[in-house]
């Protein structure tokens, strides 16, 4: 039959004409008969043959067939047979059939509403509105084919075009809102056969990316497309074992909807297959949102936010169970790492931070999820603190200005941290106020623990009034006393390495924030403006509090705190640079900056060094242990010694960031080549 139909079409003189063989096929409902035999599997294996025949007829016959009622009905019946039984023997043929239908829809998006309507009953008014374009197209085709007539016996004729939509006919087993093509594709996406699942996902992607506004609106409002996709995402999330290790979640990388990772024996852990399935489908949803029509994209993103983020994740993030908090935080971090679509990123940012632009006050109660998460960063459980800090670090790498503005900039605007009307400090010592600092008493300053290089008599400035970068770099490099430095004794721990790394990170960060149009210099201060109380915001407050305890915290927690602060310091905003990286900023009374916090930590360090016997030797041994050069063994004051090592490296990292952000010849947002050597 297929060969006859294809041959007949090739012999037709005029394109678009229906030959006698095709008319016979349609008028005598041969396709419906084949569909009935396939449904009954009579003889055995008939369904597979019928699916193949339908796929080839629709693909190879160029004449538009899907508008005919006697084609549309058996197509819908076949679709209802597919994707319902997991592991079906006809999965391959089913996905081939849906591929042909999706390619036809791509060629003519107006077909989407026609095919999706399936076996549902809707009102005539809605049907007329949804199918008006199809009727117009059908009327044109009918004028071109006046010789096609309906059979005399009164049955539905072959010429039944889209003017006789099945949506206007009521089938006995019809269900409101059912869409066979969507449900079939979703079912095939769950197939255990990798190629079948991949092809089904590609077909669904093709379906949601149709260019027609009317088709996309119909897909969102009148089909189960979005609910079905998100329901499966939530099912996969809820099927994850509660015993998943957050470290295993964080370590699982490279999951893609095109290449789902199969658990390997070497890196296998309990729940890996379920985790890979969830992350693969989340990546697919993210890709759908990126590629779909705007109407579909926005609807999918809102559905993910509502069903997964708010209804499932938020209660777990606020749960009293530490395991629940740990697992949900780690999963949210991995999801953020995979997230690429702007629409879903917007929903994730609104979920995590809210869209309120007003700065928080110190006495504010934790009304928002963001406030709770910031408190988790200073949790009694170090694991929860580390996991939540990782979440914020991942968030800071996303291309959304509201993240930086909500966490940092809204609190720095107005520059209330700068003293009003006071003269510039005459010397570096005046800036640090060492004499007034309780940690820097005369006994300690005379005890031999001096800064490694005496500070300059006055900070050098550029013509625009900014502190010269060499002064900033030297301030950080000289902050840790010589007695507490060990990097000089080991190779590949110098400042050069940090400069190279900071250059790449800053270049990446600058390209990400360029569209936001940040200024190059901070706004000038009005000396007559009254001073306002300054609050650095809950996020910086938490980071500064954590930083002030760097000598008492576990090594892994210190690494995460300094990593987040480094990410913040990389942002090329003048207020962030002034507040986090300029030691010579004249702070208002009661304010603290990153440098002032570090100065107090150094004061604490100078006191505690005297209480550690054989301090230089133990410190060098701990550094070698951390670098894996010597076997690890428990030492007295080990947490303190590890904190000293992190402090030294963090100061070098901040110096490198300051150098690549504002090299000696002036500020730049896009460095041309990485600097080399020491300052």
Automatic annotation (TrEMBL):
It holds the Pfam family RAI16-like. The gene is FHIP2B. Residues 127-147 are annotated as: Disordered. Residues 536-628 form the FHF complex subunit HOOK-interacting protein C-terminal domain. Residues 138-147 have a biased composition (Basic and acidic residues). Belongs to the FHIP family. It comes from Bos indicus (Zebu). This is FHF complex subunit HOOK-interacting protein 2B isoform X5. The lineage of its organism: Eukaryota, Metazoa, Chordata, Craniata, Vertebrata.
């Amino acid at each position: 039959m297929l060969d006859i139909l294809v041959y007949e079409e090739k012999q037709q003189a005029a394109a678009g004409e229906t030959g006698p063989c095709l008319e016979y096929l349609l008028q005598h409902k041969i396709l419906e008969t084949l569909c009935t035999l396939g449904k009954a599997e009579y003889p055995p294996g008939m369904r597979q043959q019928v699916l193949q025949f339908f796929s080839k007829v629709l693909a190879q016959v160029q004449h538009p067939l899907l508008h005919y009622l006697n084609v549309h009905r058996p197509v819908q019946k076949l679709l209802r047979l597919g994707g319902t039984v997991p592991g079906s023997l006809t999965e391959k043929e089913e996905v081939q059939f849906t591929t042909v239908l999706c390619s036809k829809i791509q060629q003519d998006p107006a077909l989407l509403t026609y095919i999706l309507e399936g076996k549902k009953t809707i009102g005539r008014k809605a049907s007329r509105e949804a199918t008006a374009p199809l009727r117009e197209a059908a009327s044109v085709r009918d004028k071109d084919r006046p010789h096609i007539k309906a059979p005399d016996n009164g049955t539905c004729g072959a010429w039944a075009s889209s003017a006789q939509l099945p949506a206007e006919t009521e089938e006995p087993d019809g269900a409101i809102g059912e869409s066979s093509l969507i449900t079939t594709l979703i079912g095939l996406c769950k197939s255990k056969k990798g190629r079948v699942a991949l092809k089904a996902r590609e077909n669904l992607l093709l379906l949601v990316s149709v260019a027609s506004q009317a088709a996309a609106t119909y897909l969102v409002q009148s089909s189960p497309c979005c609910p079905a996709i998100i329901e499966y995402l939530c099912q996969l999330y809820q099927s994850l074992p509660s015993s998943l290790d957050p470290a295993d979640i964080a370590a699982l990388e490279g999951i893609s909807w095109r290449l789902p990772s199969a658990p390997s024996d070497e890196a296998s852990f309990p729940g890996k297959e379920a985790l890979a399935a969830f992350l693969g489908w989340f990546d697919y949803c993210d890709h759908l949102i990126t590629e779909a029509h705007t109407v579909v994209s926005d609807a999918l993103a809102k559905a993910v936010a509502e069903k997964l983020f708010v209804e499932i994740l938020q209660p777990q993030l606020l749960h009293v169970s530490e395991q629940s908090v740990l697992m949900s935080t780690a999963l949210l971090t991995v999801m953020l790492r995979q997230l690429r679509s702007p629409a879903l990123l917007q929903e994730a940012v609104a979920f995590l931070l809210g869209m309120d632009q007003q700065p928080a006050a110190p006495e504010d109660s934790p009304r928002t999820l963001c406030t709770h998460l910031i408190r988790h960063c200073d949790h009694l459980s170090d694991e929860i603190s580390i996991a939540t800090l990782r979440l914020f670090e991942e968030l800071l790498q996303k291309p959304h200005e509201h993240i930086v503005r909500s966490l940092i900039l809204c609190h720095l605007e107005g520059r209330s941290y700068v003293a009003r009307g006071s003269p510039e400090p005459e010397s570096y010592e005046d800036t640090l106020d060492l004499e007034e600092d309780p940690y820097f008493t005369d006994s300690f300053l005379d005890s031999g623990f001096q800064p490694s290089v005496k500070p300059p008599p006055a900070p050098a400035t550029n013509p625009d009034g900014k502190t010269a970068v060499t002064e900033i770099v030297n301030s950080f490099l000289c902050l840790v006393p010589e007695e507490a430095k060990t990097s000089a004794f080991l190779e590949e721990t110098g400042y050069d390495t940090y400069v190279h790394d900071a250059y790449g990170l800053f270049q990446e960060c600058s390209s990400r924030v360029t569209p936001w149009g940040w200024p190059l210099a901070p706004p000038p201060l009005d000396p007559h403006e009254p001073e306002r109380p300054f609050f650095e915001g809950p996020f910086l407050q938490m980071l500064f509090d954590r930083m002030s305890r760097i000598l008492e915290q576990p090594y892994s927690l210190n690494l995460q705190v300094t990593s987040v602060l480094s990410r913040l310091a990389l942002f090329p905003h003048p207020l962030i640079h002034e507040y986090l990286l300029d030691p010579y900023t004249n702070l208002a009374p009661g304010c603290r900056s990153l440098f002032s916090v570090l100065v107090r930590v150094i004061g604490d360090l100078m006191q505690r060094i005297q209480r550690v016997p054989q301090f230089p030797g133990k410190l060098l041994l701990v550094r070698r242990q951390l670098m894996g050069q010597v076997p690890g063994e428990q030492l007295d004051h080990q947490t303190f010694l590890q904190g000293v090592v992190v402090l030294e490296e963090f100061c070098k990292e901040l110096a490198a960031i300051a150098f690549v952000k504002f090299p000696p010849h002036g500020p730049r947002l896009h460095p041309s080549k990485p600097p080399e050597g020491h300052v």
